[in-house]
């Protein structure tokens, strides 16, 4: 296991690499080039700069989160081949720079979704929350985009690129009639095209599940449960076709038994986002601290399953609350994620002392 922290890059993150370096046990970052649009080839010099800055701070750049997929690939449009070639080129460049895992998603239109980015908690912190009835009662996606813009404290949110969402009506039109089966077909086409490059450059792909794992705004879902993970693995047998096991995304559906999913798909889990949430109704939740007692997930059982079934995965703490007066991008403050990193490593250390694999 290697513990990493997501970092958005200079000028894009309230935390510095030097601060991250001081969290015990965190050896690297899940880095990105924030301003790259889906479909763009990542420039070699910018990859080299990010690597150098990371290494100068005493950290490793072995994980990228994310290289986003152009909508034409998800939609299966005739123009997809050009964008797939661009993606292959980015994989080659990242592989040469020492990147071993790329996290990506295949969600239509929206990446992750919340209905409140700053819900106050009784302890004085604030956090992100999701209430299904709010979305269900909304027929204009502009309203949610505007709510995100206002709640984000001026930070750009990952997966919520204003350039792309400016064309939201057009995106909805394009996805009209696209089913989960079509998304899987298009994902298979994409994976078949990139797997040889991944193997050659030793770069593992790790798909992020849909967040939340149920339909929103009538859009189909692709990765939402054990069935879809099985389908993903069957699309292409290569071990380079893997998973980002996100406990918060999959776990909010109470039918998803996370330790069981980890044990079933362990050899394909290259990256894990480990966080906790408190379920307040069937489809409502807020994000809490990583601590089991604060939320709905049993973190010891999750870490035990990762320890046993995916011992070489990169792991990162995921969204945290805003605590101690910190101002940061929602979910991505330094303090609560640092607490999460320590808590998860405490569990791991205990496993290592007490369990044989
Ligand atoms: C949200 C993140 C996602 C994730 C992408 C991966 O905070 O977990 O934006 O990075 O879905 O492509």
Would you write up a description of this structure?
- Helix 4 packs parallel to helix 9 (180-201), helix 12 (258-265) runs parallel beside helix 13 (299-309) and helix 13 (299-309) crosses helix 14.
- With 357 residues, the protein is of the alpha/beta class.
- It has a single domain, classed as Divalent-metal-dependent TIM barrel enzymes (TIM Barrel), CATH 3.20.20.150.
- The chain is globular and about 50 Å long.
- The protein contains 14 helices and twelve strands.
- The chain has an eight-stranded parallel β-barrel, surrounded by four helices. A four-stranded antiparallel beta sheet has the order 5-6-11-10.
- Helix 1 (17-21) links the parallel strand 1 (2-6) and strand 2 (26-31).
- 40% of the residues lie in helices and 17% in strands.
- D-mannose binds at residues 65-66, 103-105, 111-112, 158-159, 208, 273, 331.
Low-confidence stretches: none
Heterogens: D-mannose
Number of domains: 1
Q: Given this structure, which CATH class is correct?
A: Alpha Beta
Assembly state: single chain
The dominant shape is globular
Calculate the terminal CA-CA distance, rounded to whole Å. 13 Å
Describe the largest sheet. Answer: 8 strands, parallel, barrel
Q: What would the average pLDDT be, to the nearest integer?
A: 95
For the record, what is the CATH homologous superfamily label? Divalent-metal-dependent TIM barrel enzymes
- Count of discrete alpha- or pi-helical segments spanning 4 or more residues: 14
In the sheet with the most strands, the strands line up as 1-2-3-4-7-8-9-12
Q: Quick one: how many beta strands?
A: 12
CATH architecture: Alpha-Beta Barrel
- Per DSSP, what share of the residues sits in E-state strands of 2 or more residues? 15-25%
Please bin the fraction of helical residues: 40-55%
- Broad structural category: alpha/beta
């Amino acid at each position: 296991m290697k513990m990493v922290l997501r970092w958005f890059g200079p000028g894009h993150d309230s935390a510095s690499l030097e601060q991250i370096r001081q969290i015990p046990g965190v050896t690297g970052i899940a880095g990105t080039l924030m301003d790259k649009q889906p479909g763009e080839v990542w420039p070699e010099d910018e990859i080299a700069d990010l690597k150098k800055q990371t290494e100068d701070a005493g950290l490793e750049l072995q994980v990228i989160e994310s290289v986003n997929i152009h909508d034409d690939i998800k939609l299966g449009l005739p123009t997809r081949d050009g964008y797939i070639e661009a993606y292959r080129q980015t994989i080659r460049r990242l592989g040469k720079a020492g990147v071993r895992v790329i996290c990506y998603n295949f969600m239509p239109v929206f990446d992750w979704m919340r209905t409140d980015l700053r819900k106050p908690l009784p302890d004085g912190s604030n956090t992100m929350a999701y209430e299904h009835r709010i979305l269900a009662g909304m027929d204009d996606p502009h309203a949610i985009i505007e709510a995100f813009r206002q709640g984000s404290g001026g930070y750009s949110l990952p997966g919520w690129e204003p350039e792309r969402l400016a064309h939201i009506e057009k995106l909805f039109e394009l996805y009209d009639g696209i089913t989960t089966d079509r998304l899987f077909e298009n994902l298979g086409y994409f994976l078949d095209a990139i797997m040889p490059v991944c193997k050659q450059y030793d770069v593992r792909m790790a798909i992020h599940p849909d967040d939340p794992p149920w339909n929103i705004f009538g859009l189909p879902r692709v990765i939402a449960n054990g069935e879809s993970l099985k389908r993903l693995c069957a699309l292409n047998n290569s071990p380079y076709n893997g998973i980002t096991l996100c406990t918060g995304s999959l776990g909010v559906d109470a039918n998803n038994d996370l330790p069981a999913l980890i044990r079933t798909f362990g050899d394909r889990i290259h990256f894990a986002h480990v966080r906790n949430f408190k379920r307040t109704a069937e489809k409502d939740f807020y994000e809490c601290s990583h601590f089991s007692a604060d939320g709905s997930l049993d973190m010891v059982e999750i870490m035990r399953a990762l320890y046993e079934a995916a011992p070489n995965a990169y792991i990162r703490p995921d969204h945290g609350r805003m605590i101690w007066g910190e101002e940061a991008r929602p979910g991505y403050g330094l303090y609560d994620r640092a607490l999460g990193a320590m808590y998860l490593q405490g569990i791991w250390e205990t496993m290592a002392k007490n369990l044989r694999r």
